[in-house]
Amino acid sequence: MPQTFDVEHVLANISEQDKIALLSGKTGNELWERHPLTKAGIDFWHTHPIPEFNVPSIRATDGPNGIRGTKFFAGIPAACLPCGTALGATWDRDLIYQAGELLGDECIAKGAHCWLGPTINMQRAPLGGRGFESFAEDPHLSGILAKSIILGCESKGVISTVKHFVGNDQEHERRAVDVLVTQRALREIYLRPFQIVARDAKPGALMTSYNKINGKHVVEDERMLNLIREEWKWNPLVMSDWYGTYTTIDSMKAGLDLEMPGVSRYRGKFIESAVQARLIKQSTVDARARKVLEFVKQASQVQVSEVERGRDFPEDRALNRKLCANSIVLLKNEGILPFPREIKKIALIGSHMKCPAISGGGSASLEPYYSVSLYDACREALPNAEVLYQVGAYAHKMLPVIDRLLSNAIIQFYNEPMGKERHLISTEPVSTTAFQFMDYYAPGLNRALFWATLVGDFTPDTSGIWDFGLSVFGTANLYIDDELVIDNTTSQTRGTAFFGKGTVEVLGSKELVAGTTYKVRIEFGSANTTTMKTVGMVNFGGGAASLGACLRMNREEMIENAVEAATEADYTILCTGLNKDWESEGFDRMHMDLPPGVDELISKVLKAAADKTVIVNQSGTPVTMPWADQARCIVQGWYGGNETGHGIADVLFGEVNPCAKLPLSWPVDVKHNPAYLNYASVGGRVLYGEDIYGGYRFYERTGREVLFPFG
Ligand code: BGC
């Protein structure tokens, strides 16, 4: 059994410094980046230990649909479950309980005692960047599923941190926005899932949101935090969202126990001085420290792995497949599904056919153990059929990262830029051309300012002009066979990548021959080499870059080829949609449409072969479907995790009875949604003008048609 301690004994005997240190995340060791204010190292995921009193350091980890562990770069792969809205579509509390158990087991393997999930904010409008993370637009459904996943996870001894309390329903100005909402809507809609969780699950922790509610940041709003403890009689550890603590005194008084992550920005010596000045009572410090100790004591009872490792068992794969299949919503089916097994010729069309979208972006994303494409799943289901494959239309926002066509790739780290005498500090193997160094360190590396070189062999599978796109937080240039193809160092424009800290994608191109191996090289400068102003942004440090590549193809020809294949085949599956670059933490979508060109592809394929075509859409939240009337069969595939392809195929081929139902309303047009006139922060405020009439409540009351209804 892990060692334990007596909370009151520790509290009575530790030094004041240790007591205060408990109130914020752990300070990293000397290898970590130095925080500019405190000159101490940053650690994203741990609490402060006090070894003399057997008080261990507790590890927390993201996120809602899988357990990433402590590393953004070179992380240990993980089980990727279907996204929140997909889990919501199952409406199945027993199954969701099992998902929670799997997440608990994954935490244990990653050495984590505390899971940063589930997310139970509301899909007020279809464009919310994190809409895919939460379960449903209905507070009751959301609360009941949250309770189930929490109980499943906590049955493994791992503490669940339900988030984000409350009102983080949009990404635009998420730290600043003041949510103006009536008490009734706040209670009946936005607080209700948390209240259900408080009543039925009482998880060990709660994460505050970044935003304000009616004039006050929740993290420092005594009324809001008292509601949980005094009215709901639930006493979780209250931790801030990452860099979501903004004050010393107010947040302490309001009831925020733990500022995350370390290095502390508002606690530590600021609390010491506030106590001396009698601006914070000693009893308040004691109360917060007591809660942290109680949390640490409870969390430390679960025996977690000492090293971060993966666990990828057949029974987990089976559960994940079941979760995915049970989330697939048959939006429309006029006599096409299930497919017969004796199909001789099938057309598999679409951007997502070979590149499945497994998760949305931001802190929900992770390195999966594996992922199954719909293309491969269909081949498994129809081993003898002839397959006509066509992309039809690209659907990416950023060019797809290079992985499949990349070999022998490594990244080498230096403290000197290219062109100077360099001393190699470390080398890491990589399998893709995207990396985030926010948590990478190696002995001797100057985290504040370093350089890295990625080299690898790129072997295109088709001859022609290839487009390359490079986005960076820091600076980066792309060389192919030592020729400069992209300069993203000298002139940089802010984009949406890397939580909004990256540049827009800078493009370059080169004519390449199939089967020939080219040496790709990215010369990267870390975050602080950026030429963009970083005022007002959290600098996670390290920096990041993403290189994508794609064969340039003629748009019309791509569509023509797809139409030809659909005409010729016995049946067609057209799988397309959004992905983690379109739907992500950090920004909201600009519109509800599918990527440019995709509607035209779908419409033309349907014109040629509607009676034998199934359209599969992958997105976390609704998209417009101007071709919906033309289609005989539409399937909503969400972001399905590792087993995306299998899960969808199980429904298409009749292995699984399609039992999922929409957990949110699907408007015809974004303009029809109840929050349309009041979405996004205007002058730092957002008015929840629809009041309690969110989602289906609005459509029903106003008699406004939706494309597909909730439920
Ligand atoms: C997100 C949280 C997440 C945390 C740690 C924040 O930006 O809002 O949901 O748990 O980062 O990654």
Please explain how this structure is put together.
- The protein is α/β, with parallel strands linked by helices.
- The chain contains 19 helices and 29 strands.
- The strands form seven sheets. The protein has a six-stranded mixed β-sheet with strand order 11-26-25-24-12-13, with helices on both faces. Strands 15-14-17-22-19-20 form a six-stranded antiparallel β-sheet, with no helix packed on it. The chain has a five-stranded parallel β-sheet with strand order 3-4-5-7-10.
- Helix 12 packs across helix 18, helix 14 packs across helix 18 and helix 16 runs parallel beside helix 17.
- Bound molecules: beta-D-glucopyranose.
- The site of beta-D-glucopyranose has 7 residues, from loops.
- Beta-D-glucopyranose (BGC) binds next to loops.
Annotate the secondary structure layout.
Elements: H1 7-13, H2 16-21, E1 25-28, E2 41-47, E3 60-61, H3 84-90, H4 93-109, E4 114-115, H5 139-154, E5 159-165, E6 178-180, H6 183-190, H7 192-200, E7 205-208, E8 212-213, E9 216-217, H8 222-231, E10 237-239, H9 249-254, H10 269-276, H11 282-299, H12 314-325, E11 329-333, E12 345-349, H13 351-354, H14 374-381, E13 386-390, E14 406-414, E15 424-429, E16 434-436, E17 451-458, E18 464-473, E19 475-480, E20 483-488, H15 497-500, E21 506-512, E22 518-525, E23 544-551, H16 555-568, E24 571-577, H17 598-609, E25 613-618, E26 633-636, H18 644-652, E27 666-667, E28 685-687, H19 696-702, E29 706-708
Parallel strand pairs: 3-4, 4-5, 5-7, 6-8, 6-28, 7-10, 12-13, 12-24, 24-25, 25-26
Antiparallel strand pairs: 1-2, 8-9, 11-26, 14-15, 14-17, 16-23, 17-22, 18-21, 18-23, 19-20, 19-22, 27-29
Helix pairs in contact: 1-11, 4-5, 4-12, 5-7, 12-18, 14-18, 16-17
Bound molecules: beta-D-glucopyranose (BGC).
